[in-house]
Amino acid sequence: MAEFGLRCTECGATFDEHPGLLACSSCSIRQEPGSPTRGVLEVEIERLPAAWPPVAPSDPAFLRAFLPLSEDGPLPPLEVGGTPLLPAPGLREALGTPNLWLKDDTRNPSGSTKDRASLLVVAKAMEYGLPTVAAASTGNAATALAAVAAAAGVRAVVFVPASAPRAKLVQMLSYGAEVLPVDGSYDEAFELCLRACREFGWYNRNTALNPYTVEGKKTAALEIAASMVPEEPDVVVVPTGDGVILAGVAKGFHDLIQAGLMERMPRLLAVQPEGSAAIARAWASGAVEIEPVPGAASVADSLTVEAPRNATLCLRRIRESDGWAVSVPDSAIIEAIPTLARHTGVFAEPAAAASLAGLEVAFRNGLVNRNERIVLLVTGNGLKDIPAASCGIDPPAPLAPEPRAVAERLGL
Length: 412
Hints:
The protein has 412 residues and is α/β, with parallel strands linked by helices. It has helices spanning 60-66, 89-95, 114-128, 140-152, 166-174, 186-200, 211-217, 219-228, 244-259, 278-285, 311-320, 330-344, 350-364, 386-390, 403-410; strands at residues 4-8, 14-15, 41-45, 85-86, 100-104, 132-136, 155-161, 178-182, 203-204, 235-239, 267-273, 324-328, 374-378.
């Protein structure tokens, strides 16, 4: 097994791995229900590869080289990651950005970047001999866990707000997860999952609690860097809810710098909906701690959370990268869905399209130069939330089945 340890991102205490260890034993005792996680742990691998492995990023050999996995330990038989970095010439022309790329994570097995975290968490559960993995989710983490668990033959129990998009509920049920819709918010589902895992002995996949969620999500950064060699990105745009995806992307680039495979950290741009912008507000005010947003709401369900669980670490990583956090209205998110689709062929759910809306805010505010090497992380497939996407589309009226009607409609 790759030698690694766990380090508290608050107090710096170090720990050996243990199935029951999810947060720093000292810092987490100050945890208040419904607040950001205290004592988030981060994996520190002692030996990182000094050269890129000669295999595809989704290959088990690549994953084992960069992740805390044993050489011959169990790995769920589902190909996660290895998604393309697209040059998107149409969007480049529309935005006047000659060096823009899309990291298209809609192509993961369940249609979401959350598959990356679930793959590693389920692998660790298999290694520990734990038969049940549970998670609280607004939808995508639950479907990701359900998909990976189904492939691995592991039981998945997921807690989701009853308001989660129907397409995501259908997905997780189809994969065979035991779905528990909660009559409440994501934050309430999170707390219920914590209590259930403690009471029933389940392995907890909750974002910003299980350290392997950040570690799994770092693989997106590894792939971005590998695809751009010998160049490096200047700016990476990340849709942000709990803050774990951004922390994972930062961790991936940090590991590559430590390994000598990258020279510098790209600036990270966190994008949040205006109705759920606790991290963006804290960044703008210079605060270290975040103020929860009671009743947080947005069309981007995947980014909607009152108290982002990984806010403290996320804020620190944004600032360390000399990056920024911006918020965007739901109207801009909805507009971004067809804009992205028409110029790139990538159909994104609202949370994923938020990255484009946020980049446009950054351009207007002079935060990002249009000539920089920019990567948009597109985190989820638009088929997960058709009702939201339809808000930005006006379906055409039916026409008569005659060529003349076609000519009139198209102005021929």
